[in-house]
Amino acid sequence: MEDYEKFFEMTTEERKQSIQGHPSILDDLLETIGHEETAIRDQLNYRLFILLLSENALGEEVIAGFVSKLSSADGLLYNIGEKGTTSVFQRSYAALFLAAIVNADRQLAILTSEQLELLAQNAVALLAKEQDLRSFVDSKSGWAHSVPNTTELISAIIAHPLYPIRFTAQILQAIRANIWKGYVFVDDEEERFCNIIQALSAKKIDEELFIEWFEQLFDQLEMVAFERGYDELWFKARTNQLNLAKTLYFYLKFANRNEKLRSIVSAFIQQWLKLS
User: Fold this and answer.
1) Label partner for 12 (CA 20 to 30 A): which of 31, 55, 205, 255?
2) pLDDT in tens, 90-106
3) DSSP assignment letter at 42
């Protein structure tokens, strides 16, 4: 891994020639994207990958190989459901690498509709099922951030010209699932969720779908309170939901769009904060 440092000192052309002459470097990078040390995972692997991607130093075959591995059970779905283990870094950085690829592919046009469909399917599954919700772990491991990195991937997929729009309802329900995981998000994750909603809104999706989804969030709060009472899970869900609602309101306000949805969001905030 220490050898990676030399790549940052090369010229663009030197990097391309070195990678072409030593393709095993990319295999090593792919095998260690979820390394448990942030010094390797972030400062070497991810940094080098983004540099090569931005310089168009990765061929179609290499990119296809990354997509194939990272969108599978070796990447996005690696030991999904675990929490408190190092497997979270594999899932999280698979999402981060794939987000970079999907964003770049809006110009490269390498990915097929079938590949993007699989990416959407597995990214939504990860967002819904991820149980390791840690943000910063420690100075050695750095950031886990699986949910935020997965939202980055989903936002990139939505912005792609080949976005399979049938996943919209599943994406919204995956956001809803995160509200009820018994964890209060503390590192602005609600902003990442709102980025997804903004990306969907830009696709001219019927506003009524967002309204129905948003109203169901608060319907669930009321239903759970009636059935189980105000337990710890309920209060954590309430905190997540109100944080999401407040952030969404200002996103819509500053973007000056979805006036009907914005009005409904405002009404629920006032109701649940007892401001009226």
Assistant:
1) 31
2) 999 999 999 999 999 99
3) I
